[in-house]
Amino acid sequence: MSETEKKTKISIRTRRFLTNRLLNRRQFVVEVEHPGKGTVPRKDVQAKIGEMFKVKDAEKTVVVFNLKTHFGGGKSTGFGLIYDNASFCKRYEPKYRLLRMGLAKKKEGSRKQRKEKKNKMKKYRGTNAAKAAGQSAKKK
Fold it and tell me: Do the beta carbons of residue 101 and residue 62 sit within 8 Å?
């Protein structure tokens, strides 16, 4: 094996594998060995785990998070989840992880704008509220 092959090769191992039927997923600790290379991107680890466990639609059902590189490099550990299907993933995963994976959309406007709109809507009732919401959207 040449020096370049050693550097590009990464190996992934799973430990503490558990099947969680209540949340319709498999969960485990991921160990990534990447000698001579920086931290491996989460998407690459996600794809490799999908191949290892023969998961269809791995980009929507495999979740990898909390990857920490050990001191000195060469090894990282984190957590992994494999959901039975994408709908369970969307139901049980936190919103920020869904945003990272591209399965959810971020709210439009700043937090202050959303709060101002909410408070403005308190002044109106029924169909007038819908009209006021439409006007505030058109102004901006």
Answer: no
CA distances from 33 to 4, 13, 69, 80 (A): 15, 8, 10, 15
Compute the radius of gyration of the chain from its Cα atoms: 22
Q: Which amino acid is at 78?
A: G
Helices 111-121 and 127-139, axial angle in degrees (round to 10): 150
Q: Select from 21, 15, 8, 19 the least CA-distant residue to 78.
A: 15
Nearest Cα neighbor of 49 from 73, 65, 69, 70 is: 65
Give per-residue pLDDT as tens, 88-135: 999 999 999 999 999 989 888 899 998 998 898 888 887 887 777 776
Question: Smallest Cα–Cα separation from 89: which of 127, 62, 57, 119?
Answer: 62
Could you give the residue ranges of the DSSP H alpha helices within 1-140? 3-8, 42-52, 58-61, 86-92, 95-101, 111-121, 127-139
Structure tokens belonging to residue 137? 């959207």
